[in-house]
Amino acid sequence: MSQTKIAIIASDAPEAxxxxxxxxxxxxxxxxxxxDVIVALGGDGFVLQSLHQFMRREIxxxxxxxxxxxxxxxxxxxxxxxxxxxxxxxxTLHPLRMTATRTNGEIVEALAVNDVYVLRETRLTAHIRxxxxxxxxxxxxxxDGVIVATPAGSTAYNLSAHGPIIPLxxxxxxxxxxxxxxxxxxxxxxxxxxxxxxxxxxxxxxxPVSAVADMVEVRDVREVLIKEDRTxxxxxxxxxxxxxxxxxxxxxxxxx
Length: 256
Hints:
The chain is an alpha+beta fold. 16% of the residues lie in helices and 39% in strands.
């Protein structure tokens, strides 16, 4: 069996760049275009950036933490890298596709691994009508914004907004309000992963709202459609003793 060809990439952080130099001295590497696996050194943001960069290649990414939190990454260890990759579990993710219509009629599409959210741009609260699969579920939500999160993204912004942590494989999305004012008691919903969510921004000229899909922000939107795109496959590799599924489960028992 031929040896797995790896490419090693790193964020701009000095610690990540230095780690890349050491690993490239230790292991034979190829360009990302020739690789079977991409080793990404950095933090969670860099892994997200890498998933987007190589999205159309459907190449697995094995991340090692040279950042801060490192929720989407494996521990950093220079020993036995090829053996760890050979034993790693590969998790397939499908991103959300955001179709945002701006107040001037321009349409912008973007993909999100973690979440799509809308957020008010000014001191005025956002007024949002929420439809799920063509049916109005909330005629008017007065809030700072709304998040639609994947299971992989449920521990990011969604968790900070008091949304639920979703185990991988649950086939659901989290719909979570950000600082809801009316209806005051609404805390969000869990939706089937095949759902299409439509967020209609009421009074969009007076109460401007932005839409964000991971790293893409669209200003002054009047309507946002969000749906899982199963035609796109993203692959993340995790050490068998520290899988993402286990981390998401453990996070639900965290008392920090």
